[in-house]
From TrEMBL:
The chain crosses the membrane at residues 61-82. It is a multi-pass membrane protein. This is Tetraspanin 4. It is found in: Membrane. Its main location: membrane. The lineage of its organism: Eukaryota, Metazoa, Chordata, Craniata, Vertebrata. It comes from Phrynosoma platyrhinos. Keywords: Membrane, Transmembrane, Transmembrane helix.
Length: 89
């Protein structure tokens, strides 16, 4: 949440149900410090993470896709290498 500068899916109040109190994770704080999520809402990110992450994914879709494809190819190659090694041993 710190990297995206957001808090909660819809907004920071999403965390109130999780913690059963008026608090957010420390990663929601404008300036991170230990237990800063216990302070007032004026010290927390207000932007919803759903929209923020959605926009980031749309802007970086090509890079995310290439990363996923490369990861899959590496896994397939390792599978074939280890399978060939197990036949030799």
């Amino acid at each position: 949440m710190r990297w995206f500068r957001c808090c909660g899916v819809s907004n920071y109040t999403d965390w109130f149900e999780v913690y059963n109190t008026t608090r957010v994770p420390d990663s929601c704080c404008l300036e991170f410090s230990e237990n800063c999520g216990l302070h007032s809402p004026g010290t927390w990110w207000k932007a919803p993470c759903y929209e923020t992450v959605k926009i980031w994914l749309q802007e970086n879709l090509l890079a995310v896709g290439i990363f996923g494809l490369c990861t899959a190819l590496v896994q397939v190659e390792f599978y074939h290498v280890f399978r060939a090694l197990s036949v030799l041993l």
